[in-house]
């Protein structure tokens, strides 16, 4: 998962990729750090999804522009439009189902 450091960089990613998953965390969030490897493993089953990671300590503008109030947060975009978001408690099985159904929109 590629780290991004600004909202401008994120805008470039969603404009140049059809399906994008954004993982948002913060430096002091132990749940965020525990969940990230699980999400990365899940994404191995979805090679068409571009995944990026934003740390609110480094890139607070991303959380502000996307109104992310709670972390960990996962936002999923299809053709530049947000399709769904999940925050705080992220069940991996449910995330898999939502990604699968969202990719059918393409």
From TrEMBL:
InterPro entries on file: Thioredoxin-like_sf, Thioredoxin_domain
A Pfam family this chain is assigned to: Thioredoxin
Domain Thioredoxin: 6-87
Alphabetized SUPFAM superfamilies for the sequence: Thioredoxin-like
Designated name of the protein: Thiol reductase thioredoxin
Organism: Domibacillus epiphyticus
